[in-house]
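Exam revision sheet. Question 4 asks you to relate a sequence to its structure. Input first:
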Amino acid sequence: MDPNRSPDDIDPTMLRGEWPYRANPGEKARLGIGLIPTREPGGVVYDRLLTVEEAT
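Answer key, structure tokens:
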């Protein structure tokens, strides 16, 4: 998790299951660098969807 991001700047499509909190994905989340980064300079970070438990 990136502590410099807003707690609701998360892309719920990266999760397996229903995100129980308010999600308001901004430009950073759409770019893969939101609250939970999904992209890095070398490509994608995860090869699967994360569970809600992993994301909280």
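Marking note for examiners. The CA atoms of residues 14 and 49 lie 5 Å apart.
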